[in-house]
Amino acid sequence: MKKLFILFILFLSILIESNIYCDPNDTVYVIHISGMINEGVYSLVRRGISRAIEDRAKYIVVEIETFGGLVDSAVKIRDALLDCPIPTVAYVKNRAWSAGALIAIACEKIAFTESGSMGAAEPRPMEEKNVSALRAEFSATAERRRRNPQIAEAMVDQSVEIKDLKPRGKLLTLTASQAKKYGYADFIANTYEELWKALRIEKLKVVNEHLNWSERLSQITSDPTYSFLFLLGGLLLLFVELQIPGFGIPGILGITLIVLTFVGNYLAGLAGIEAILLLIGGIILLLIELHTPGFGIPGITGVTALFISLYMVLGGGINALRSIILASILMLGIIILFIRYLPESFVWKRIALKEATRTEAGYTVVTIGQDLVGKEGISVTLLRPSGIVEIENRRYDCLTEGEYIPPGTRVIVTRVVGNKIFVRKIS
What we know:
Blueprint: H1 2-17, E1 27-34, H2 39-54, E2 59-66, H3 71-82, E3 88-97, H4 99-105, E4 109-112, E5 117-119, H5 128-144, H6 149-154, E6 173-175, H7 176-181, E7 187-188, H8 192-198, E8 205-209, H9 213-221, H10 224-242, H11 249-267, H12 273-290, H13 297-313, H14 317-341, H15 346-351, E9 376-379, E10 386-391, E11 394-400, E12 410-417, E13 420-425
Parallel strand pairs: 1-2, 1-8, 2-3, 3-4, 3-5, 4-7, 11-13
Antiparallel strand pairs: 5-6, 9-10, 9-12, 10-11, 12-13
């Protein structure tokens, strides 16, 4: 029995020495944060912390490379890091600005590369209540990690003055050497090997956590600049689609851009399901409006629903209103350019009516009676939705109920309203 016990101990020693057996405490999770800070990044951090706890990791390293992002998301990440039972290390690769600075300060230790910098966290819009609230978050986080809170406050508030470091009227951004001098950097490490050495970890298992596809999509589409461009592009493509017959590439691309914007912002937590429902409802109402004469309640309600959904997706507030107003002005300008120059373009000439409706060409102006209802004819030109139809050897200016009808198609008169003749395609 004693010999078996000795053999077991020897076998266990061999496993440990050969790294076949790996103590879970040698595991280090590296959470890679880059780009805009938003709910997608918060989801990444939360997932990484959860898996690290399950694996009983020794450290969680948060690699930061960001110009900033959404304050709400950064505060959630800050809370998750402060509550994390595993030691956390922020690794500032090049920059941890704005929201990234709060995330770095929330970690127990901070490591910088020599080219790293941290700070410049003034909120937007720069209102007193926003500055005050974010300043308190930075200060409380620094105190929790036993760092000088005044330095953290100076990253947010221009009015904070620190002798020999920051004058009044400017925001504080620390370089790597300054961060080391003032207690905001525990290590200077240009490589992960240097970081492991500073943390005194010799044998370890590294698990990397990156943004998944949905988090990456939400990060891109929830960026205010990209959201604005996607929505503007989508609406313009839909406008182009309405000017041509059938349903083609412009319509597909337009809907895709709009859907990506809404889905991405939904995944990022910026837009709820109500915004998507408003979008769908608005589009349905506008489609109904297109198939009814004039512009009435469906059209007004649909446009209102679309604007409200856009306002919600863009995060609300004055910035959302500015984006919507700017997009509306740009759209109006582009539409005017389309109307001015598109009729002269090669594409437009391929799809538009080119012939003049002169009497010599066989066209006639007559008083239209209800006796035309039910009669059949042939479309002479493209109806989009108006065009020329020949009925009983006479040509009439007709309208469809909203569909596009190509030349040479058999049609039937469905109704006559005043001098307007409505037709539909015969199946």
